[in-house]
Amino acid sequence: MRAQRLFRRVLAVRHVLAAAVVTAAIAGLTGTGMAASATPSSTADLKTVPFEVSGELPIYPKALWRNGSSGADVRKVEARLIQLKLLDKQYLDNSFGTMTRSAVKKFQTSHGIPPLGYVDQNTLTKLTTATHEPTQTELFPPAPVVDGKKLDQRCATGVALCIDKTTRKLRYVVDGTVKLTMDVRFGAKATATREGGFTVGWKSRDHVSTLYDSKMPFAMFFSGGQAVHYSSDFAARGYSGASHGCVNVRDLTKIKVLFDQVHVGDKVVVYRS
Q: Which Pfam families match (predicted)?
């Protein structure tokens, strides 16, 4: 009996000691770890915000139009930015892209607005005050007229390779003025040249097609493997032949000049008049 009572006392002491250790550990965590996490280690952890703060979240002005937006309202904003010479005419295209964003930032900076790069109500109000209502001509510049025919409307602004399948002509157009005109031919029925609006993706002065093992000098690619380039076959055979989808040019002198004038990102418009 005495041995049993002694054994029970030993167990009780062990329970008391274990409880004391747990209590001390909790107190240590509460006094150091939690307190430390509640206090920034340095001022570098503190972040400032440009506008009013509600709780811990910054309140930014609501965006009316931003990068990726499109439509008639975006075109009006672009036209106003063009009036202020903050945006080039070639970017009047209903699409809020990186150039429009850059122009918006410049306007915001010059008018004491945080340069967020999107149009909020405050920016729109100040932009409207600083400009006049865009005219129809400013919004939709008239298409150039060549030999009594209007070019595609998309060729009216900026820099464009305006390629007409009907007249088989390529025209290099800058802000509605035709700078160069040259004869071109297109792909055969099975390898038709794609129609639509594109941009020059990349250029290659001495390009050789790995698919057809043929030379494509002064190539300006605009849609996958399709490019505007010089063709010795076109120069020799004329329209009796066809390309594999590219826009062939037969005047070597002219395409050399064109190649040096055209930049990556310039518009390419392939259409039928």
A: PG_binding_1, YkuD
Scanning the chain, the segments in alpha helix (DSSP H) are: 2-28, 34-38, 72-83, 98-110, 121-130, 136-139, 232-237, 252-261
What dotted CATH number matches 142-271?
Answer: 2.40.440.10
Over the stretch 84-117, which tens digit does the pLDDT of each residue have?
A: 999 988 788 889 999 999 999 999 999 999 999 9
Q: Domain boundaries in the chain?
A: 2-45, 58-136, 142-271
d(CA 201, CA 203): 7
DSSP state of 243: B
Q: What is the CATH number of domain 58-136?
A: 1.10.101.10
Q: Judge whether 132 counts as a catalytic residue.
A: no
**Candidate list 155, 162, 207, 246, residue with the active-site label:** 246
Two domains, one topology: 58-136 and 142-271: no
Residues 173-228 have pLDDT tens digits of: 998 899 999 999 999 999 999 999 999 999 999 999 988 888 999 999 999 999 99
Considering the chain, what is the average pLDDT of its residues? 84
Sign of CA dihedral 60, 64, 66, 68: positive
CA 86 from centroid of its chain's CA atoms:
17
- Give me the phi and psi of 86, to 5 degrees please: -100, -10
